[in-house]
Amino acid sequence: GGEQISSIGRGICVLLGISLEDTHKEIEHMVRKILNVRVFEDESGKHWSKSVMDKQYEVLCVSQFTLQCILKGNKPDYHMAMPAEQAEPFYNNFLEHLKKAYKPELIKDGKFGAYMQVNIQNDGPVTIELESPAATMDPKQLTKLEKQQQRKEKTRTKAPSESSRERNAPRNKDDPSASSGAEGDVSSEREP
User: Fold this and answer.
1) What is the pLDDT of residues 115-170, one digit of tens each?
2) Residue 33 β-bridge partners
3) Catalytic site positions
4) 30, 19 contact by CB (below 8 A)
């Protein structure tokens, strides 16, 4: 909206993607890693020696659900991103932990859920991906979570089904709404 929400000088920009499997247990781990990762040089110019806390630099956090994107062909799929109504309190809790672990005045953030233009001057460029311990789960568990989320989404968008008596009743051959399944329709429900 043409308004500057936050800005920092030298420091770290954290693009935070929150997924369905993330729990509050991982917040402490991520905060510790973000504040202690050694990406800055020391006074003698030695690279990878100092953390953002060592240098007393700032931290800018931006919530970015697109980091949870899974490509299905060429189309982005975001079903593994935590829904906004859960992700916003999670994100706010993450910010509070950062502020408690460091200096609150050095922690800045964007506007949750807003369309923002983020300008980053990436020094180096250095980009480091940090994942919570839950993100290291095996692919079978991830697939199971994806299937559970897809079932939830289908349940939320599905219209109420017919009663079991109507569903199991034999269909008349002359009934135009009866499906033979010839076109891949395996649904037992009729459109109203």
Assistant:
1) 999 999 998 889 999 998 866 555 556 566 667 666 766 665 554 444 444 444 44
2) none
3) 66
4) no
